[in-house]
């Protein structure tokens, strides 16, 4: 059984990352993928990047990794510069903002429809939004998509006849007033995703950075 923990938007929150790593280990995940924005927000940018690098965690580059005014250590900056914009594994696509050519934030069902209309991957995992979301392609309304509800800590089973965009939430801070560290576990064998909400230290930005 392969269980992939998908984390994103750490923003230098090393304490939060350590807490999430403990939960990932408890859940028995085989792999970890990080969807970017490793830095820019907290005080421990170098520590976050070195931890991910030294533990061979696959990462993509986020917009804050690419554009910031931080004075990062050279080895840290070199690692960030080496990161790809996406990871593709068969019918799954992992990226920070969007798989579209036009990188709009995927935070509503209309933009999700635009993604489904432009790409053919069955499952797209994104960060950037700082809010956990599930969009499905199947929808009764043209030009839109379905927003699915889920329960934290419970598997959400994916329909093999549908396609999905999964916004995995953030380790650094949320934008929806839920003061938890959030990430996703993708169970490839059971074809499900499980959103995790973990008690831990958030960045101060999380208290006012709402939509």
Separation, N- and C-terminal Cα atoms: 37 Å
Shape: globular
| SS elements, strand count | 12
Low-pLDDT sequence parts: 206-211
Number of helices: 5
Succession of helices and strands: EHEHEHHEEHEEEEEEE
Main beta-sheet strand count, sense and barrel state: 6 strands, mixed
Proportion in β-strands: 15-25%
* Oligomeric state of the chains present here: single chain
Query: Measured on Cα atoms, how large is the radius of gyration?
Result: 16 Å
Question: Could you please describe the fold and organization of this structure?
Answer:
With 211 residues, the chain is α/β, with parallel strands linked by helices. It is 21% helix and 24% strand. It contains 5 helices and 12 strands. The protein has a 6-stranded mixed β-sheet with strand order 3-2-1-11-12-9. The longest helix is centred in the N-terminal third of the chain and has 13 residues, at 14-26. The chain starts with a strand and ends in a 13-residue tail after the last strand. This is Metallophosphoesterase. Pfam families: Metallophos (PF00149). It comes from Floridaenema evergladense BLCC-F167.
Put the structure in a nutshell.
This protein is of the alpha/beta class. The protein contains 5 helices and 12 strands. The longest helix is centred in the first third of the chain and has 13 residues.
Topology (SSEs and partners):
Blueprint (H helix, E strand, L loop, with lengths): L2 E5 L6 H13 L4 E4 L10 H10 L3 E2 L3 H4 L7 H8 L4 E4 L2 E4 L13 H10 L4 E4 L5 E5 L9 E2 L8 E2 L6 E5 L12 E7 L4 E7 L13
Parallel strand pairs: 1-2, 2-3, 5-6, 6-10
Antiparallel strand pairs: 1-11, 4-5, 7-8, 7-10, 9-12, 11-12
